[in-house]
Design goal:
It is a single chain. The protein is an alpha/beta fold. It has a single domain, classed as 3-Layer(aba) Sandwich (Rossmann fold). The protein contains 6 helices and 7 strands, in the order βαβααβαβββαβα. It has a 5-stranded parallel beta sheet with strand order 2-1-3-6-7, covered by helices on one side. α1 packs parallel to α6 and α2 packs across α3. The chain is globular and about 60 Å long.
Length: 210
């Protein structure tokens, strides 16, 4: 069983998001000592650009053609990330909320891996996700409280986007741990962080892996 640990925070040990996700991961590894964890830090990774030859190759494949040889190198680099994503059984995404949504590095990574023929396919019945029966846990931190009934919920473009885009790949078993609000008074921030950590431990202990 392999977990892909996707980090989308540039703050390292100072990250409140990672404080929570580390709690989840350590608890899960305690429950499943044989769990293989593959780390992917998006702010340290030299992610390829989706342009030029990779785009040409993508559309060539989608139309049933064969890409030109000089476009295959950039395409293979893109496809590698998509295939490595598909190879995992469970996913942990750690992402602070930036401007109501996700950091640009996570958006770039999603644009890289969302490739037809690898994570989804077009069929006579519509789009079919190819990453079915997998689990995903998203740990977020938000400066304000965006929960239902908070008055700020309509501005939460983070959770709906992640549910939608990964649902497109067939991943529908998605759990969220949202540390919020994190930019209020120190006592409120501390209490919110501890609450999220407790939720992380509870979710990890309840998680059943095949």
């Amino acid at each position: 069983m392999e977990l892909l640990n996707i980090t989308a925070s540039p703050r390292g040990d100072r990250s409140r998001t990672l404080n929570v996700s580390t709690e989840f991961l350590n608890t899960l590894k305690g429950k499943y000592p044989g769990l293989i964890v593959r780390d992917l830090d998006l702010f340290k990774e030299n992610l390829p650009e989706v342009l030029g030859g990779s785009v040409d190759a993508k559309y060539a494949f989608m139309s049933g053609g064969v890409p030109e040889e000089d476009s295959m190198k950039s395409w293979n680099e893109i496809a590698r990330y998509s295939k490595e994503f598909l190879a995992a059984d469970i996913y942990l995404i750690s992402s602070p909320m930036w401007n109501f949504t996700i950091p640009y590095k996570l958006k770039q990574y999603i644009d890289i891996i969302m490739q037809a023929g690898i994570l989804f396919s077009f069929t006579v019945n519509g789009v079919e996700g190819l990453a079915k029966n997998k689990k995903m846990i998203c740990v977020t931190s938000r400066g304000n409280d965006y929960s239902n009934g908070s008055g700020m919920n309509e501005f939460d473009l983070q959770e709906p986007y992640l549910r939608t885009v990964f649902g497109f790949t067939g991943i529908t078993d998605i759990s969220f741990i949202n540390a919020q609000p994190m930019d209020f008074t120190p006592d409120i921030t501390s209490a919110s962080l501890e609450k999220a950590k407790a939720e992380a431990r509870t979710l990890a202990l309840a998680l059943e892996l095949a």
